[in-house]
Amino acid sequence: MISGGVAGVYFFGAHVPTEYTTNTPLLIIAGLLVGIGTRLGNGCTSGHGICGIGRLSVRSIVATCVFMLVAGITVFIRLHVL
């Protein structure tokens, strides 16, 4: 893990920001949405992705595919629409 961070800095010139700005109401809303999604999905993304797929649970496989699809759509909207 450490070598990955070092390689990232070396190859991409990444650096750690010295200052963070936060929007507290947005963080609270995001946390609530994550909690609601976890409850609706009967578990978290890593639980479905690691344990559920390992048990060949169809429900977990479908949930993980949905998580990945929504993540891809979110990235597309964030980068190309907003």
UniProtKB/TrEMBL annotation:
Keywords: Cell inner membrane, Cell membrane, Membrane, Transmembrane, Transmembrane helix, Transport. It is found in: Cell inner membrane. The keyword Transmembrane applies. It holds the Pfam family Sulf_transp. Its main location: membrane. One of its GO terms (cellular component) is plasma membrane. It is a multi-pass membrane protein. The chain crosses the membrane at residues 20-40, 61-81. Belongs to the TsuA/YedE (TC 9.B.102) family. This is Uncharacterized protein. It comes from Aliivibrio fischeri (strain ATCC 700601 / ES114).
